[in-house]
Amino acid sequence: MSRPRLPVGAFGEISTRPLGNGRFRARVRYRDTDGRNRQLEAHGSSAAAAKRRLRLKMAAVNADHKSSAEITGDTPFTDLVAYWLEGIKAEGELATSTLERYEWEATHLLHPAFEHFSVREITVGRVERWLTQQRAFSYARATHSKKILSLVMGVAVRLEAIDRNPVASTRRIKRPPRTPTAIDDLELDVIRNAVATWRRDANHKGPKPDGQLEAIIEVMVGTSARIGEALAIRMCDVTLGPGKPTARIVGTIVSPKGKPTYRQDGPKSAKAIIGASSRSPPASSR
Fold first, then answer.
1. Residue-wise pLDDT tens digits, 247-264
2. Phi, psi for 116 (deg, rounded to 5)
3. What is the Cα–Cα distance from 89 to 80, expressed in whole angstroms?
4. Which of 14, 77, 126, 280 is deepest in the core (most CB within 10 A)?
């Protein structure tokens, strides 16, 4: 029978033999990270001394193997998170606001729960208990927590530090029942009147509003756009031809931490949104 193949990074049995003149040689076979079998040897004044020196060489080889593997099962979880963050930053595909949210969630959600564990110690049971705690806080926090932890542990799976993603085996987080709510006509009138009279009384000092706030309110009511999306609409995104006016929602306004506010482009193929409100605004806000 052929000699059984060693696992990658494993050592075989140490053998010794005398060389004469009171010297001994110790040898061991090991399988390197490239899959090839290699030998280490050391010499000493006795068989035991030669083995001790050989074991020191084996320890050095082990250290080199561990350092060459960026992420292993014994890697601290916080190092895995840092590796993941550096990777998505290097890819440059995510918006700055998304990166900032991931960094915040990693620091405030993942680290407090798992900072004292290694990668292989992030088990299904630990993740399940943690998600239960997050769900008790809110559905949104639980879903965000599950998503970001799954992304992090997915890196460990791809690097073969673990065999499977423990997040994938946890229970599905059920969305709580809720009744959709919408602003009614009375509430809309209150908002319009409040905006129309804001800072316009005779006792108010300083420049009067220029009407932009009223326009923003009407755009948001007519298009259902968020505030950032409404502020990002350009003249080229608006169609005022025959029929109902429309606006294409293809961007948003973002304010990265420590950086200037700017317009961020959205999907290139955005659906045209009807831009006319079903109710006309009061004369004071036209």
1. 888 888 888 777 888 888
2. -100, 10
3. 14
4. 77
